[in-house]
Amino acid sequence: MNEQLLKKHFEQAPRMEPQDAVKLAFQSAFGCGHLLPAQEDCTRRIQAEMASVPQRETPLFTPIGNGLCRLELASPDARRLGAGRIARMMLVTDEIVRARKDNCERFEAALALTQALALQGRTPFSAGAFEAYLSVYRAQGCPVVSHTPAYRETYLPAYRVVLADLALLTPVLLSGRSVIVLDGPCGSGKTTLSGLLGRMCGATPIPMDDFFLPFDLRTPERLAQPGGNVHYERFEQEVLRQLAPGKPVCWNRFHCADGTLIPRSIPACDTVIIEGSYSHHPYFRPACERLQALRVFVSVDPGEQLRRIRLRDPGMLQAFETRWIPLEKKYFEAYDIQSAADVVLDSLPW
Questions:
Q1: I need a surface site. Which of 24, 200, 219, 235 has the fewest CB within 10 A?
Q2: 185-198 pLDDT, tens per residue?
Q3: Handedness of CA 101, 104, 105, 107 (dihedral sign)
Q4: Model pTM?
Q5: 3-class SS letters over 40-107
Q6: Residue 114: CB partners within 8 Å, gap ≥ 6?
Q7: Using an 8 Å Cβ cutoff, are 44 and 104 in contact?
């Protein structure tokens, strides 16, 4: 939770009381905070609430900080997602949030920021009212709280807390396609997003990193081709030719250390996810059209891209800046990869 986002929430809800602010801080750190039932029960509860909530023109997602957002059930797009998919989004979110090690620190930071803004007169309630409520709240052991009657009456809250990255993936989830191919620059979040898609549908992504070009094919002529540093012929032969939703997939992973090929496979699944730079190479276009694949391009700001690479592997930053990023850029521009995609996702930091 950052100051700008918290101020926005206060501006949009001038009848917010200290209890509502604590709920916002709690959700931004712990997600829903409740023990979730099985997916079937969770789905039924969402269906019942959606049936009782009038639809209104409202954004589907409202960011609440720390990579989380509120999915608004009153939005017409919530109906398109469906209760079952929303329930699955909640369960995936809960698994990931519970695995974080610093949720308590995030919660305390959000409370401290709220208190600081209250002292500046930037909250709908006074600093004294917030401190008084917080004192009682802590004495009670910091329980999960509900919205106040005034907040409920004014703003009609009806939402579920989900990962912001799942919000980003909404166009993909709504596509109905069974083969999904994610391309984009390194550091754009392709691996993270494909992993979330996999958790949503029980699929294991197929990585393009398994198809680096063998040493004996790395000729100057081949490497001069846009995207020529990937063994796209083998990917087309081993993966795309045999690919069919509901069937297992087997291929060989190129081992960068010694150039050997190591057998890999994934079990049958109704959804197939392919992830990695160069996965939209025009060499694959006939196969993608045959499979009716959804081609997703994940973009990222160059400064944010370098920040993520630095965090992930500081020792490799120079290699990315001088070699891998220029090679990708050459490929993206030569084939106009972003414009040719079916869906473009802007991987901004939440």
A1: 219
A2: 999 999 999 999 99
A3: positive
A4: 0.90
A5: HHHHHHHHHHHHHCCCCCCCCEEEEECCEEEEECCCHHHHHHCHHHHHHHHHHHHHHHHCCCCHHHHH
A6: 6, 21, 22, 25, 123, 130
A7: no
